[in-house]
Every structure is written in structure tokens, then in C-alpha cells.
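#struct-queue
[09:14] JT: dropping the first one here, sequence first, then the C-alpha cells:
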Amino acid sequence: MIRSSEWEDGARRLATELRDAGVLTDQAWWDAFAATPRHVFVPSFIDGDHVVGAGSNEDRWLETVYSDEALLTQTRTHTDGELLAQELPTSSSSAPSVMAIMLDRLAVQPGSSVLEIGTGTGYNTALLCHRLGAASVASIDIDPALVTLARRRLNDAGHSPAMIAKDGTTGWAQRAPYDRIIATCAVTHVPPEWIGQLAEGGRIVAPLVGPGGGLMVLDKTAPDEVSGGFDLHSVGFMPLRDQVAEALPSGETMSFAGTGLPHCGLTRLDPRKIAGASEDQLLFLQLHLPGLYLAGARDRDLQSSSLVVYTGDAMAEVDLTPTADHCWAVQQRGAYRVWDTVESALRTWSALGQPERSRLGITALDRGDRQYVWLDSPDGSYSWPLHL
């Protein structure tokens, strides 16, 4: 049994740590973090092959729960074609610093109504309830089991927001409009339903799928439109799923299984520059390669031997060891030459002055084919369509 003084001290320390780090600047959000019992929503978490919880290694569990760490709470088995099955994360309690950044970007006002996409453990829901009151909060998740657990834990913490198990892509029209929509899962674009359910002058805060860690902050600028840009902070979230039993959205894969003879050649682009690319570089690269994944291959001594860059349609593998004339061998397969696209994108990135994400804007209409990212100006020379 956890004494109230134990968790209250931990919660206040966490809130103060977030304030000292500069991600918790609003006293009302400090109060929410300091008063919300995270351990109620994370009674256990997964650490490698072990489960750490209140009944085992309790001191470590409680200390970790009240630290600025993301805590994995659920996985599902995923298999791509003939590849070995692997456990992929499907629910977690995000790092509190990331939650603080996203809650701050919501810019809520007293009485603001909020729709949360991705209930998960319910901890973020509880923070919203503390700040705004449960009557102003609605939360949805694809997994009925997660919704049931979160509802019970929220009730234990004294909150009773509206909750439902459903596909987050479609929002919750029956309770619309919302002043704010926040997603705790990553999306490839802005679901049109969210735009339609957002109140005039409302705001959407949502992570973008991909290695660039883009966090979209978008305001409603017309009845059928939101616009804005990327926050300076990068974030990483699991993708928004549309099926409970699957770890990835329908049709998505974490591998490239194409066949046929490869395109073999040499490149003068050092693959280590991609492996060690900044998040701003990766976001720019992602604009040119929707569905981008990066991985590494290892030799028999378990040393990194090559960089693998792939999407669902194409793949390139580049040796990390250069040839005598300072080139790198590359093999490309699939519908297009993906490494050629990498080279072209990075040349453009350099020619444009290595733009940071602050120069990228987003305009999204309530049609999936009318959403795009632009550089410097929506009427400028460079733009890239969403989905990513």
C-alpha cells in the first residue's frame, strides 16, 4: 500500500523537475502534475523481458513512475510476411516532459473543451481533468480493454470524463465541437473529421509519424481548414491504429519484402551522415519519402555493417565501409531508387540553407488530398503533400 506522502512527494518533485527544465511554465499545469497520482495509472510497466510493478521491486517501480521516463505498458505480436514475430509497443505512459510540452501547446483556457485521441493509461486524461474539470474532457482509444482500465483508474483518482472505445481517426462527432484536440499517437496527416469537429478558433496538437519527430500545432483558420507548423521540440509516438488486434495501422509494414534483382552502384554520400542525421534533417528527408524507416544490418561479429533505408515500396542498403576511392556500395530494390531520393533531398536541404523545422508550415483542408507542408510560405516554391 502506497502512503499518500510517498507519491505526493514524488509527484511534486517531478513537477518541479519539469518546471526547472523549462517545459512546465504554467502554474496550473504544475499544479496538475503535482496533484495527479501517476502510479495509479501505471501500476506496472514493461522493462525488457521483465514487468516491474507494485508487487515486485516496489521501490524501483515508484521511483521510476515519478521520473521523467516513458513507461511501456502494452505490446502486441507483429509479423511481417515471413519475418520472425516481434513484440511491438501498443500503449505506454509518455515521458512527462513530452506530455508537458504538448499540454502547454494546447493553450487551453478556462472552460475549454478537449478531445483526447489515445486514452492509453489515462494519466494524460487525468492531467486534463485536473486542469479543466472532467466535464470538459472526452477521450477515445481503439482498445476497449484500455478504456475500461483507464476509466476505473480515473474514477479512483476522482475523475469521470466521457470515454469511448472507437477508431480515433473519426473523432467523436456526437460530442463536437471541441475547442482543442490533442493526439497521444502519431498520424500520417490530419484526419478530416478532426478539422470538422474543431470549434472556430480551435487548436489541434498532434505528432506526425516518422523519424523526424514532428509535432504539429495547428489552428482553425477557416471552417474547412487548419494551418500552423511544427513545434521546435521533436516527439516520438506510436502510430494511430485502426485495429485492436494489430500493432500497426492497416496496410502498414516495418519491412520491405520486395523481390527481383537489385540496382547495384556506388554513392558519394556517406551513409553515416544519415545514421547520425539531426531530427530536422530527418523530418526534411521524411517529406520526400513518406513511410520512411531507418535500420542497421550487422555482421557476424554483431558490428554495424550497413545502413538500411526503406519504405513500403522501396529499399536501399548502403555499406558503412567505404571503397578505396571514398565511395560506398549501395543496393536498391523496389518501385523506385530510394537512395537516389535520399541524395536529392539532402542536396536540396543543403541548397536551402539547411532549414530547421521552424521554417516548415502546414496547411490542411478537411480533404485528405488537400493537405501539405510548405517551406517559408504557403505560396512559396517548395511544398510536399501529406500523407507521411
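[09:21] JT: and here's the second one, same format:
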Amino acid sequence: MDDKIIIDIEKKLFTSSGELNLSIHASISLGELVVVFGNSGAGKTTLLRMLSGLTNPGKGFIQCGNSVWFDSDAKINVKPQQRSIGYMFQDYALFPNMTVLENICFAQKTKDINQARKMLQDFELDEFANRKPTKLSGGQKQRVALARALVQNPQLLLLDEPLSALDAGMRSTLQSEIAKAHGSQNTTTFLVSHDMTEVFRLAHKVLRIEQGCVQSFGTPDEVFINNNISGKVQITGTIARIETFDTFFLLTIITGLNQIIKVTAFKNDMENLSEGDTVVVFSKAFNPIVMKV
């Protein structure tokens, strides 16, 4: 299938909790943004490393579009540099002897200084262009690593918890940048995340992994539908998604306990509301009211 990523792989892992048999079977449509969700040690990072070619499955098959990247039976194992991959690692993996601009330029297949400088602007890194990674904060390193992954215009973008070290404002900004880059670069994105707001704001599909196996796969609503709760009490949360319909808006709000609330709102309610806003939801005469904090 030239419009799918086919994953049918198994690998034995040894974790802090003991032996784990990673067994991932999924068919992903090209062009989707897939959030890989699950507890620590479930096998999320190992899945990304196997897609990239940095870790070999024990056995199985990986096909991206019409290209077979791994087939244990046919003894096919395409090298990482021959796969069209952009990878942002948890530890950033920046080159310490290169400046921020040089790190970004290094990832380009075709050198384009203007594109690299545009990335610096998009990720608010202009003033750090000539600084080495050792002189950057954790959040700044994270932005450089994300810019370097995106500048490759990859067929497959792999993001391993890309926004975990950022404050709420920058996280919301870069969520928008990821969504925009995904849409404009004709890429398929796998993003590891523990953040429910991130899931609902970004994901087309969620691949939920538990104990090394796919527990569920579908839209965020399909995967997390059992977390929905009533809005009869005052609850604070973050707007993860705003959907527009003919006569109303549907807000998906994630609470601090990762509970999901669906609230309808009308045009006059939406004047000051946008995705990423912290809001309070409360009832008045049995109608939910959403107010920005």
C-alpha cells in the first residue's frame, strides 16, 4: 500500500520492571499526525527508534509508502540515513562544537541559509544563532532540536516528547508550529507525549501502548472517550481543541487530572478564547459557561 505506513514488528526489551515483549501492529495513513501515548517503559521511544532504523526489531516488517524499510524474512534493513526521517531525541543530541545556526544547517539535505534563518525566527532563536549548545537553557536546546528535525522536510517526522521542558506559553506556541509544519511539509508525524492537552490539540490519531502492545488506536475521542465527565461543577482546564460548526463551537477542555470535558459555545462566548487558553468551566441554569482565567 503506497498510502500507508505498515508496522508489524516484535522485539524483546529488558526494562527496569523486567522483560517486556514489544509487539506493535498498526497501519497508519500517510499524512497523519499520530500521538504515541502510554506510561513510561511501555515501548514508545523504542518504536520511534525502530522506525528510524537506529534500533532493529527482533523480527517483522516496516513499510513506508512503497518503500520497504525493514523485513526480517527478506533480510532488508534500510540504513537510517537512507530513510527520509527527521528525529528529535529526548536528550536533544545537539552537536556541542556547532552553533545553533550550524546545528540547524547541518540537517539540511540542500543547504539553504535563508530557510535556516527562517527556522530561527519561527522558534524565537535569532539571538542565539551563534551560541553553542552548552550556553543554552533546556528549553532553548529543545527548540533547536525541533527546528533541526523540521528543517529536513522529512517524509516521516519523529518527535520524542518534544515540548516537555517548555513553559505553558512556549509549549502552546510550538504546538502551533508543529501543527503548521506538519500540514505544510506533507509529512507523517509520530509524536510521543504524556500531555492530554497536546494529544487533543495535535493528534489526528492516537496509538496507545500498554505493556508493549497496542491497547487502542483511533481518534483522541475514540481512545479516551471513557474519560469524559459531566460539567456540573466548577472545573479549571486548558482548551485543547476548538471545532467550528454552522451555529456553534465545540470546545475540548483538558483538566489537570487529564479528564476531558466537551463544552458547546456560541460566537459571543468565543471573542477572547483560543486553543491553549486556561479556562474555568461552571454551570449556570444547567448551561455550561466557559470563562478565560
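[09:30] RK: nice, looked through the second one.
[09:31] RK: The domain at 228-292 is CATH 2.40.50.100 (OB fold (Dihydrolipoamide Acetyltransferase, E2P)).
[09:31] JT: good to know. The helical segments are 44-52, 100-106, 113-122, 138-150, 168-184, 196-202, 220-224.
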